[in-house]
Amino acid sequence: MTLISRRRLATLAAAVLGLGAVPSGWAQAPAARGEPIRIAMIEGLSGPFANTGEAVFRNLLWATERVNARGGVKLPGGARPLLIERFDSKNQAEEALSSLRLANDRGIAIVTQGNSSAAASALIEAINKHNERHPAQRQLFLNYSAVDPALTNEKCSYWHFRFDAHADMRLAALMSVLREDRALQRIYLIGQDYSFGQGVLREARRQLGAQRPDVKIVGDELHPMARIKDFLPYATKIKASGAQAVLTGNWGNDLTLLVKAAREVGFEGRFYTFYGNALGAPAALGDAGIGQVVAVADWFPNVPTPESEAFYKAFRERFPKPEDDYVHMRMQLMVEALAQAIERAGRVEAGAIAAELEKADVTLAGQRARMRRADHQFQQSLAVAVMDRQGTPGVRFDVEGSGYGFRVIRSLSPQQAEMPHSCTMTRF
């Protein structure tokens, strides 16, 4: 691409996204030169789920580049750039806590994590205790993916903000499609054996009982997380059960290996998933997934708006490798909300930022979302999409160069996706 065409694309992307800025490499505003505002990303960057951690880093990096390209975070003492510092939790709660202590030793006030609800729960508890004991060095926790509903209900904390829809919200969106599948009579529930996976299956049983009591649950099991290398025994049981569909909250390799095994044993039923739209799952299924894999997300590349298209094209320009194709709108909104809150607070201090984050209301690429003050649960639109071949109506973009993408079949507004909470917030 020539420099001129790159600049034209940058100008178009900035105009459509409504940001007044462009990604790194296209900067048209003076870069911030003050002391960086550091953000500790605590995530599994090694082991079986390393690919999910790296996908998070790309998203956060791109989001901070966008803020920095427009001049950084404006503060009374001058603009300051955002900087991501990586901490490898190895997908273990104890390692996440060690990373938190290290981040605190380095004086980092803003912490972000997401790819484990167990780790998120441990971090919330640790930050609560730390902030009570050390009010002059308080920390703030931004959660982009840990979706155990308890985290913004009975375990809610003033210091924790969740930017993903929690599991019950995601499941309700999936159920809005599943309940209309009148041919479905038998379903298999399977998930990872930890708080999130357990919660998904528990809520699935409840929502199925309430909305589709005619559907028989022919399998209901949990498996060890990140320890199963061969899912053929599970896939064999699924097929033998006579299930017409599988519902799972599995993510990462635990999802990819499951759907691959299901294909190998000849299972022809539908997969209702939380995360079946990337990280190898579409390629693993191939044509067998067309019309059969359903996923729910806050956003999909094929959301049919010009703003969404420009947003996705800008990401692919920044990260052109097919294996890097995994962009999350919510992570972009999270960083925008953080930058907004710091500017309004006028300083980088956890308590001051939290008070402003409670009022966050951000728009990016036509997607608007707000933080609910009562429980710190982000309220945003949700979409349900089905896998299809790239080039079919509604599937302009594929996933990870696989030739398969996801067509949006149901869109829920933030008001439609919203659910009640049981949080009793203690404020500081």
Automatic annotation (TrEMBL):
- What organism does this protein naturally occur in? Hydrogenophaga borbori
Q: Does the keyword Signal apply?
A: yes
Q: Which Pfam families match?
A: Peripla_BP_6
Tell me the protein family, please: Belongs to the leucine-binding protein family.
Name listed for the protein in its UniProt record: Branched-chain amino acid ABC transporter substrate-binding protein
What UniProt keywords are attached to this protein's entry?
Signal
Q: Which domain of life is it from?
A: Bacteria
Q: Where is the signal peptide?
A: 1-27
* InterPro entries, alphabetized: BCAA_transport, Leu-bd, Peripla_BP_I, TAT_signal
Domain Leucine-binding protein stretches: 36-391
